[in-house]
Automatic annotation (TrEMBL):
UniProt domain comment: Consists of an N-terminal FAD-binding domain with a Rossman fold and a C-terminal substrate-binding domain.
Major location category of this protein: cytoplasm
Name by which UniProt lists this protein: Flavin-dependent monooxygenase
The protein's role, per its UniProt record: An FAD-requiring monooxygenase active on some tetracycline antibiotic derivatives, which leads to their inactivation. Hydroxylates carbon 11a of tetracycline and some analogs.
Pfam families assigned to the protein according to its UniProt record, in alphabetical order: FAD_binding_3 (PF01494)
Signal peptide: none
Entry EC number(s): 1.14.13.-
Keyword Transit peptide: no
Description of how the protein assembles with itself and partners: Monomer.
Co-factor requirement: FAD
Subcellular location as annotated: Cytoplasm
EC top class named in words: oxidoreductase
Length: 369
């Protein structure tokens, strides 16, 4: 306990789930420290756009007292999907945003910035890489840092993503390759520089899919479109193809060959992107992923239930963070709080993992439908 008698709480990872947890704890007057291996908030780009679901991400933002600020930044028109025929780009289906704006979009970086601005200055200790944790006999947990130092806490929360350094204290599970890789690229100032693509994508997201490969493009803020070339392929597909991922021209040429026969308006994504190609192999944790309760440590978000990126991960991470914070301020002990949280989070994550796997199969079909 700290000098005020509150439990000493450490959150490893300044992502959306960890920051939501910190925000809700501070709302209730609890102290918390967030450790982040990155050197600063802007050390790297934070990724694409996210749709915030009413019963998960938005519920967490409401709990954190940030829903109004979220809506001021969000793009309700972004909750639109267009499905196109890969052979001729004909519109096969279109789903517009609901009248109530049920899943407004927001750039991940904007959402993280909103959360960072909402917590007390100094809460996040940047450039503090964690190497592991050691649960102690008295029910506390020792946090081990890469520089050789250590600190003890009443609770360590692993919010440190797919390759969590906290997870091994609870589980031997490791992420496995899904068989699907996303190759990411992007377009800047689309409405003026790429108007035909902007019309093709519309206000939200566009999907065209064939057997074993798909193209997804999503509107981000400031006229940016982020695109993903989705492939069912071995993780080392580029090695088998004799391609150096650093050779952008070779990657572009190979991808164009892979999408031979697709409509040229869709191949434009491969041929004319402003940004380079980034290879992102998709990994997931086994489902179900559960563990026996260990005093002094727990997980949230991708550290607990890494799933395919089909719209659930960020929402669940934030709801995890909110739920954990609430149990910590309402239960009589840290141990009871963590047990209560895990009894909610683990069953929820099992159901979501099943749905996400099905979503990935829909996004990148393995066989013709």
């Amino acid at each position: 306990m700290n000098s005020a008698g509150d439990p000493r709480i450490a959150i490893v990872g300044a992502g959306l789930g960890g920051l939501t947890c910190a925000r809700v704890l501070q709302q209730h007057g609890r102290s918390v420290t967030v450790f982040e291996r990155e050197a600063s908030a802007d050390a790297r780009p934070q990724g694409g756009t996210l749709d915030m679901h009413a019963d998960t991400g938005q519920a967490a933002l409401r709990s954190a007292g940030l829903l109004d600020r979220f809506h001021a930044l969000a793009r309700p028109e972004g909750d639109e999907w267009r499905v196109l025929d890969f052979a001729n780009a004909a519109l096969l289906a279109q789903q517009g945003p609901s009248a109530a704006g049920g899943r407004p979009e927001i750039d991940r970086g904007q959402l993280r910035g909103l959360l960072l601005d909402s917590i007390t200055e100094g809460t996040v200790r940047w450039d503090r890489a964690v190497s592991g944790v050691t649960p102690l006999a008295d029910g506390t947990c020792r946090l081990l840092f890469s520089d050789g130092t250590a600190e003890d806490f009443d609770l360590v929360v692993g919010a440190d993503g797919a390759w969590s350094r906290v997870r091994p204290a609870l589980s031997h599970a490791a992420p496995g390759y899904t068989g699907v890789t996303f190759v990411e690229t992007g377009f800047d100032r689309c409405d003026t520089r790429h108007p035909d693509l902007a019309r093709l994508v519309g206000n939200g997201s566009m999907l065209a899919k064939g057997v074993g490969r798909s193209l997804v493009a999503q509107r981000n803020s400031n006229g940016h479109i982020r695109a993903y070339i989705a492939l069912r392929a071995p993780e080392d597909w580029h090695v088998a193809a004799g391609i150096d991922l650093g050779d952008q021209r070779a990657v572009r040429t190979h991808l164009l060959r892979m999408f031979d026969g697709w409509d040229e308006s869709l191949r434009y994504i491969l041929r004319n992107s402003d940004n380079g190609f980034i290879n992102r192999s998709l990994f997931v944790l086994p489902a179900p992923h559960t563990w026996e309760h260990v005093p002094g440590v727990t997980l949230l978000g991708d550290a607990a239930h890494l799933m395919p990126p089909v719209g659930l991960g960020a929402n669940l991470a934030m709801l995890d963070g909110s739920d954990l914070a609430h149990t910590l301020v309402t239960e009589s002990s840290v141990g009871e709080a963590v047990r209560a949280y895990e009894s909610i989070m683990l069953p929820r994550s099992i159901e979501a993992a099943t749905g996400s796997a099905q979503g990935l199969d829909h996004l990148v079909p393995a066989t013709a439908s």
